[in-house]
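does this look right to u?? copper (II) ion version
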Amino acid sequence: MNSRRNFLKTASIASAVATAAVSRVAMAALPEPVIQTTPTTMPPLVPNTGRPYNPVVTPNGWTLPWRMNQGVKEFHLVAEPVVREMCEGFKAHLWGYNGQSPGPTIEVVEGDRVRIFVTNKLPEVTSVHWHGQRLPNGMDGVTGLTQKAIEPGKTYVYEFVARRPGTFMYHPHADEMVQMAMGMMGFWVTHPKNKHPLIDEVDRDFCFLLNSYDIEPGSYTPKIMTMVDFNLWSWNSRVFPGIDSFNVRQGDKVRIRVGNVTMTNHPIHLHGHEFVVSGTDGGPTPKASRWPEVTTDIAVGQMRQLEFVADELGDWSFHCHKSHHTMNAMGHNVPTMIGVDHRSIAKKITSLIPDYMVMGERGMHDMTEMEMPLPDNTAPMMAGTGPFGSVGMGGMFSVLKVRKDQKPGDYTDPGWYQHPPGEIAFEWTGALPDPARFKSESHSSMPRATKPKQEIEVQIRKPVGPMSH
Ligand SMILES: [Cu+2]
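got this back:
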């Protein structure tokens, strides 16, 4: 599957050999790049060299192994075209790092000296900017401003000390519009060296990037000129139901780190719990500035750390609160048909076009259960089947699964929550009394000068045309 285990074996052999005096030539060789071939969530990479720390888990992602070279942590990133499975049955042709988009998460400890080799296998120049880091200016990765562009086929070396603990990311600073629209980005976590007054120890630590793509149904490559009208809203380049659940044990202190690499804001919302924002890409927030939230807006280019105690058992939705961001590839030119009875016209059309289907006269949930013919390689618009039927979601949606018996360090999916008897919403089968209607007691503050001549009820149909979110 992935070659991490082999790499670690090789890496530890290499370092064992290294201490036994190896030629400078061998030591100068690049670390072997590690390539990931699946979009599954890899277990946390427990460090076997350097200072210990509690590693993060990257949903549908992985952490890049390193080698220790005379006290320096060495990583090798390869910028290259990748095929990313965004959900089952839907593959996108993106650009990324080391086989996937986003690239692997990089985890280091405050005070570590880090050396990152970046090999460019793209058809155009690139560079890597280490978003949020304190570093020498020449290591900041801005093409033309702080360094030469990395030409195709070339490898550059970045080296700096990870001075500030916290939540960071990396992405190109060369032809950014194209390269970020194509999926080039990755997470970076710097763990604190010692106990930090503002950084709590947690039992579970997750990280993901918010990203968006515009891929026409039936095609594979994102349109890179899109500014607002994206049709795929993803976490770590996955769309629901392709996003793995966040599996924790009841009572766990949980930290979720999120970075926004899209071109709009995302109000990230958690059910059943309150969280605080314990940090940003600027560092941990002062304790006095933390207040309880169930939704926090993450603006473009921002990163946030959400922290909470997962004390409520269950399967809790965790999603972006913009309703268009929990749907997949959809045409935007669909008029609202709710309340429109077009049975008669549908009958006439069906005689001409047998496959004709009327969409959405009772809302659009029906579409989630309908077997609609879709072009090959298209993510279903709203999907995901839960224990009670269709979830009717897509895009930026996942589930926090809180269980009594989830073992510490076990991130595997425990399956659906078994609700205790009497704790599920149920159908009322008794008589329905007529509703008692309240008499309005409100008055307008400023009465109209003239009485309206007649009651007007407006029937609105939204205009057809391009829509922004
Ligand atoms: Cu959103």
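The first strand starts at residue 67 and ends at 69. idk if thats expected tbh
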